[in-house]
Structure formats: structure tokens, C-alpha cells
Design brief:
alpha/beta; TIM Barrel; 11 helices
Length: 274
């Protein structure tokens, strides 16, 4: 039986105007054992000024490692989403994320196909994605890093579409980062979908969806940046935990919520189940 662990995506401090290190300490204070940092390429004004939690991949990866060691938390993965359909962006970005993950100690890099180019066909997009994932998988295999494909965009917002992307490249480095909230908002049953992908599961975004957001958005969008506090929405977390326990590897539930208060309520709720 696999272990189910609790972590938090660093977007929980996105609106707090605080730097990465502050968020790591806050996650530990709330009781989280794992965090999932955001990473970006180049330099970004707000994060450089200490008002935003994302970490530049031009920084020393040990910055992340040291912050985790100081706070007593571990890394579940990196939130390294990049448009796989646009290899001019995603090719080098994803490979850099894999190298960064290997050095800072994150076992998984998470991504999705991203917004597609306006001029390409569906078949062309899948060729482009195959190219990016093939190149990335070579680096990931050599470094024992896993690539988590997430249901989020135009092709992965359906079980068959996510499977098609997953099957583009035959590599042990490629798995599924399931998102409970995105899968629900797409109009599908997240429990059935999670059961379908559990043998390929490498990471999970624990995103709950409020009743109001469900009424307003379900079937109209393919995802959302963050959800409500876990246990306060529509997701059946007891079943999520049970399925993850039957997965072949230990799984971190990386909570995706929008505020520090929601992160606190989420871990208090999930601890009762895990």
C-alpha cells in the first residue's frame, strides 16, 4: 500500500506579497511536510523584489534546497508548466526545469500542453509535443526525475486526450500529475478519472472546487489556477486518498489553494483522512 503524504503548492502565498523563503517557513508552520515551488525562466520584477513566490531557474538551485532544509520540509515536485505545443518556449524551459529539479532535490517536474499556437492543427500539435517530451525524457531518465503531465488545457481536459499525450513517448520518466479540480471543471468525474490513471500517477494537485465555482464554471473551462480549501468544496477526498493508497508509488497531495488561511484549513481537513 502506497503512502499518501500532504504538501502544498506555493501559490498559497501568491496574493500575500511575500518571497519564496517566507512561504516555505509558513508552509512548515502550518504543518506541511512537502512543498511544490513555482519556477520561471529569466528574471521577474516582483519575485526579485521579494513580493512573489516564484523562483528563477537562473538562481542557485541550492537556494530552494537550503530553504527546505532550514524549514524541515521536502520537495514534492516543481510547478514548471510550459506550453508543450510551443517547442520554441517549452523545449529548453522543460529541460532546464529538469536540471534544476535534479540539483535542488525535487523528484517531479509538472507541466501540461499549454495554450496551443493559433495556426497549428491538432495533429501538428501532437508532433510538436512528442518532440519536446522526447528531448525532455532523455534528460529526466538520466537524472531519475519524473515528468508529471497534468489535465489542464485543450487536449488534456479529457481522459482520452490526456492518455494520448502520455502515450506520445514511451519513457519511464513520464507519468501523470492528476489535478482533482481541473478534471472536475472539465465536466468529468475526477474519481473515475483518477482510478483510470492511478498506475501512472507520480504526483497529485489537491484542488477543491467551491459549489459556486462549480455552478459558474463547470463544463465551460478546462482548469483554474487555484481552488477553495480542501473539504469545503465538491471533491470526495476520502475516495481520492483511498485510490492514491492503491497506486504503485507514494503520492504527495499538493494542495492548490489561493490563501494562507485556506492552506491552514486544508491541512487540518486532510490530516483527518491521511
Amino acid at each position: 500500500m502506497a503512502k499518501v503524504l500532504i504538501g502544498v503548492n506555493m501559490e498559497f502565498i501568491r496574493h500575500a506579497d511575500k518571497p519564496f523563503e517566507w512561504g516555505v517557513e509558513k508552509a512548515a508552520e502550518l504543518g506541511y511536510g512537502y512543498i511544490e515551488p513555482w519556477v520561471h525562466w529569466g528574471r521577474e520584477l516582483m519575485s526579485e523584489a521579494g513580493y512573489y513566490e516564484s523562483v528563477s531557474m537562473l538562481d542557485d538551485p541550492y537556494r530552494v534546497k537550503r530553504a527546505c532544509e532550514k524549514a524541515g520540509v521536502k520537495l514534492s515536485g516543481l510547478s514548471s508548466h510550459t506550453p508543450l505545443c510551443k517547442p520554441d518556449i517549452s523545449g529548453n524551459y522543460l529541460k532546464q526545469a529538469i536540471r534544476f529539479a535534479a540539483e535542488c532535490g525535487a523528484p517531479v517536474v509538472n507541466t501540461d500542453e499549454g495554450p496551443k499556437p493559433a495556426w497549428t492543427s491538432e495533429e501538428e500539435d501532437h508532433v510538436l509535443m512528442k518532440y519536446v517530451l522526447t528531448e525532455a525524457a532523455k534528460l529526466a531518465e538520466a537524472r531519475n526525475i519524473l515528468i508529471g503531465l497534468e489535465p489542464h488545457q485543450q487536449y488534456s481536459g479529457h481522459p482520452d486526450g490526456l492518455d494520448r499525450i502520455y502515450k506520445l513517448v514511451d519513457s519511464p520518466a513520464i507519468g501523470i500529475n492528476f489535478d482533482t479540480g481541473n478534471s472536475y471543471l472539465c465536466g468529468h468525474d475526477p474519481i473515475k478519472w483518477l482510478e483510470r490513471v492511478k498506475d501512472r500517477l507520480v504526483h497529485l494537485h489537491a484542488k477543491d472546487i467551491s459549489v459556486q465555482q462549480s455552478k459558474d464554471k463547470r463544463g465551460k473551462v478546462t482548469g483554474t489556477p487555484s481552488g477553495c480549501a480542501c473539504g469545503e468544496g465538491v471533491i470526495d477526498w476520502k475516495q481520492v486518498v483511498e485510490i492514491c493508497r492503491s497506486a504503485p508509488r507514494d503520492i504527495v497531495l499538493s494542495v492548490e489553494c489561493g490563501t494562507v488561511d485556506q492552506a491552514g484549513r486544508s491541512i487540518n481537513y486532510l490530516k483527518e483522512l491521511v
